[in-house]
Amino acid sequence: MSGDPIYTEMIIEYSRNPSNYGKIDEPNIHRHDSNPLCGDSIDLYLNIDDKKITDVKFDGKGCAICMACSSVLTEMIKGKDLDDVKKFEKDELLSELGLEHLIKTSPVRIKCALLSLKALKYGIYSYFAEKMDDIESAGNLKDEAANLY
Amino acid sequence: MQSNTYSFAETRKDFPVLNRRVRDNKKLVYLDNAATTQKPNQVIDAISDYYKNNNSNIHRAVHALAEESTEAFEQTRDKIAEFLNITNSQEVIFVKGTTEAINLVANAWGRDNVKEGDIIVTTEYEHHSNIVPWQLLTQDKKAQLKYIDIDDNGELMIEQLDEYLSTGKVKLVAFSHVSNVLGTITPAKEIISKCKNAGVKTLIDGAQAVPHMKVDLTELDCDFYAFSAHKMLGPTGVGVLWAKKEILEKMIPYQGGGDMIREVHKYETTWNDLPYKFEAGTPNIADVIGFKTAIEYLQKIGMENIRNHELELTKYALEQMEKVPGITLYGAKEPEKRGGVVSFNFNDVHPHDVGTIIDKDGVAIRSGHHCAQVLMEKLNVAATNRASFYIYTTKEEIDVLISALQNVAKVFKL
Fold first, then answer.
1. How far is CA A50 from CA A76, A79, A87, A120, B335, in A?
2. Window 369-408 of B, Cβ < 8 Å to A
């Protein structure tokens, strides 16, 4: 079947061979999140050095959309500065995989696509909050994460 | 006795939603009946007629509408008693669903009958509604929750029950009559008989049994039985708790409010008779009335016929699915040991992806953990796909499912 709006070659490839899949021991940021209704469940790990994301990994169980989006997200933020990453928008992630349409067409599957981004935003929020650093961004991130989908 | 040649395909004309086209103008193939069944015109009309002609609150006012509504409401109670061979319809308590029925028992019975160190036993294949209320109760009482495990064929390892019962600490064994994921039919009579010998109460979650097979509660002789209307052609928001009168009479009320009282004074209240003691507030009158029509519809077909029809469909589905490469089937190999439910996984493809792809062919199945995460852990999967059948399901629809699954294989280059 050609022209499937969701299951592109890229998504299926990522689902079979996810990028940055694995665990970081004693990471600076660790966030677990899951979708209670569907059962996708992931852990996101980040190491931060002077506000720079020096390493990022994820592991867990999820559908092809969840695995592909988590892979792309980790690719996009690796090596980036937290000040840039904290402003990261969901459209940037979705458009990378051609999944912007999910926002309108599938309120259920959008949760699979954005689970890792939600974990990321909550993770950075906790990191800022714990360090009492950039409290304004921390508050925004928490709200963004809570209202992501 | 109805004939075994009931024309099930004929029922389809009564279900307007089955004529729907979905997604890309595909014919709807509805295989998510374990979640909820569709409703026939007869049930939809009964509810709408009630609102058009009779609507009134019940049990109180003396005007004509109130009397008619009360009578219609109580007729459903009598119908349920007849349907399940319950000798006293006062033992039929209306709740909003199976979940509320189990919570009612956990709260109203559990409060006075479970204490520190006691054991509640449930099973690995329960729906969350037959696990979480017992977790809440046992945590509150410092009691223990134990599980009967399942074997590789998806059947309960009943010998574990003997071990639990031998401690003398078990107060209740709560189990589903039919598993909502594996379809396994629980040997209820065997469990009940063991529990009776040990003086232990039994609660059965019958949500997946009452709609699909003949259930005789006098013969079964458990202590509590719960089920929902919406899984048997009836409306959502109506369920039943049945329990023996002598147990209900000793139980404290679950909720306080209107209808459940005899006399209310400033500091004390006396309770209404059964079943009203457990039916606080204005009930879901219209839907209870609609439920009677649903039961009549099923009675007309005959529960043995329904069971045989689903057995035939399940046999066919298991045979056809086994031919699809990469399919893992869960549950008992023998169709006779299961209800009309087939859970499966498909190679490395996540159930959500299977569900989304076959949805484009109009096929509605359930993908997920089916509110049975304890069982998912046991099967070591995050989720499964589940196709579930009912009276209007046809073999042709199972063929559509199979060809949709072959399409999944194409998309995922299996």
1. 18, 11, 18, 18, 62
2. 369, 373, 376, 382-383, 407
Tokens of B20: 């729907």
Q: Could you tell me how many CB contacts below 8 A there are between chain A and chain B?
A: 49
Buried/exposed B64-95: b ≥16 CB within 10 Å, e otherwise = eebebbbebbbebbebbbebbebeebbbbbbb
Kindly state whether B347 is in contact with chain A, defined as any CB-CB distance less than 8 angstroms: no
* A58 strand-pairing partners: A21, A44
Q: Give residues with Cβ within 8 angstroms of B347, minimum separation 6.
A: B326, B409, B412, B414
Find the Cα–Cα–Cα–Cα dihedral B166, B170, B171, B172, rounded to 10°.
-100
Q: How far is the alpha carbon of A88 from chain B, nearest alpha carbon, in Å?
A: 26
List CB contacts (< 8 A) between A12 and chain B. 411-413
pLDDT at residue B5, as a whole number: 65
B222 annotated active-site: no
Contact (Cβ atoms closer than 8 angstroms) between residue B282 and residue B260:
no
Q: Over the range B392-408, which residues count as b (16 or more CB within 10 Å of their CB) and which as e?
A: bbeeebbebbbebbebb
Query: What is the C-alpha to C-alpha distance for residues B407 and B411, in angstroms, rounded to an integer?
Result: 6
What per-residue confidence (pLDDT) applies to B52? 98
Encode pLDDT of B42-55 as tens digits.
999 999 999 999 99
Tens digits of pLDDT across chain B (414 residues): 444 568 998 999 999 999 999 998 999 999 999 999 999 999 999 999 999 999 999 998 899 999 999 999 999 999 999 999 999 999 999 999 999 999 999 999 999 999 999 999 999 999 999 999 999 999 999 999 999 999 999 999 999 999 999 999 999 999 999 999 999 999 999 999 999 999 999 999 999 999 999 999 999 999 999 999 999 999 999 999 999 999 999 999 999 998 898 999 999 999 999 999 999 999 999 999 999 999 999 999 999 999 999 999 999 999 999 999 999 999 999 999 999 999 999 998 999 999 999 999 999 999 988 899 999 999 998 899 999 999 999 999 999 999 999 999 999 988
Query: Tokens representing A107?
Result: 């309120």
CB B90 within 8 A of CB B274: yes
How near does any CA of chain B get to the CA of A128, in Å?
32
ipTM > 0.85 for the complex = no
Judge: A62–B412 Cβ closer than 8 Å, yes or no.
no
Please name every residue paired with B144 in a beta bridge, in sequence order, or none if there are none.
B119
**B contact test, residue of A12, A14, A38 with most B CBs within 10 A:** A38
- Spell out a b/e string for B26-39, using b for 16 or more CB atoms within 10 Å of the CB, else e: bebbbbbbbbbbbb
> Which of these is catalytic: B332, B371, B387, B391?
B371
